[in-house]
Amino acid sequence: MDINNIIEQIKPIDRQKVEEAQNRFDNLIKPVGSLAKLEAMVSRYAGIIGSADKKSVQYPKKALFLWSADTDSVAKAMQEELPVVLLAREAKAEVYPLLVTSCNLEEALEEGAILTKEYIVSDKLQMLALGSLEKYTLTEQTEAFLQLEGIEFLQKLNDPVITAMTGAVLQAAACKVPVMLDGIATCLAAVGACKLAPVVLEYCMAGHVSAEPGMEKLLNRLELSAPLKLDINSGAGEGAVLAFTLFDAGIKAYNEMETFAEAGVHAEVEEFAHSVQVKGK
């Protein structure tokens, strides 16, 4: 599998559908913008799938991909000994513990991409969360690497797990599958993917602000805003799967709440609006 072929398949999301979805939220019988980040996530999803029709904007089939190069950690995840497995189950997401076996950069990129496409296709996955069973912090050296362009960033990091997740992010975007990011490791993978294909960022969402050192700096660099800050100090996917439940709440509101038009309520005429009358006094 050639990673460049995958990159060529990644297309921008449909901005018109994003606006249409946001317009529907704005016209629901509720204060405008009151669902905040839930609206932003669902509107982004509409742009990714290319439809703002509520018949199409349904609960996606979700999964958490847990990456590690440590066989013991992967075994614990497979035996459901990790808290994130229970949280994922509550969020109606399957958990896929994935052992990274590649040593060099090219192989790790391809390994992440191949595994991701295999499960997306075979299990018809429509939304992914990424997590890592390794421990990470944003060191000064890593921050310096952020200034590098293209593949050189991943070369300097020299981390097979992050590189494999970079391949996963690229492949998910090529398949039009959104990715919920978790901690430091997944954000570094998103940075790596964006350096290879900037449009990838349109497919990424931030699940939470982890308590890992440097997390907020990375989110700022990615220009992503997370809906949760729970002081979770690992990047194993806990925050991402919890964000799944918020995303589903946004889907529920999008589909089950009525707009003024659907409820047969006339929209307020601006010149007779209370705010305008008060201003004119």
From TrEMBL:
GO terms for biological process: cobalamin biosynthetic process. Its EC number is 2.4.2.21. It is an enzyme of class 2 (transferase). PANTHER family: NICOTINATE-NUCLEOTIDE--DIMETHYLBENZIMIDAZOLE PHOSPHORIBOSYLTRANSFERASE. This is Nicotinate-nucleotide--dimethylbenzimidazole phosphoribosyltransferase. The keyword Glycosyltransferase applies. Keywords: Cobalamin biosynthesis, Glycosyltransferase, Transferase. It holds the Pfam family DBI_PRT. It catalyses: 5,6-dimethylbenzimidazole + nicotinate beta-D-ribonucleotide = alpha-ribazole 5'-phosphate + nicotinate + H(+). It comes from Phascolarctobacterium faecium. The lineage of its organism: Bacteria, Bacillati, Bacillota, Negativicutes, Acidaminococcales. Pathway: Nucleoside biosynthesis; alpha-ribazole biosynthesis; alpha-ribazole from 5,6-dimethylbenzimidazole: step 1/2. The keyword Transferase applies. One of its GO terms (molecular function) is nicotinate-nucleotide-dimethylbenzimidazole phosphoribosyltransferase activity. Belongs to the CobT family. InterPro entries: Nict_dMeBzImd_PRibTrfase, Nict_dMeBzImd_PRibTrfase_N, Nict_dMeBzImd_PRibTrfase_sf.
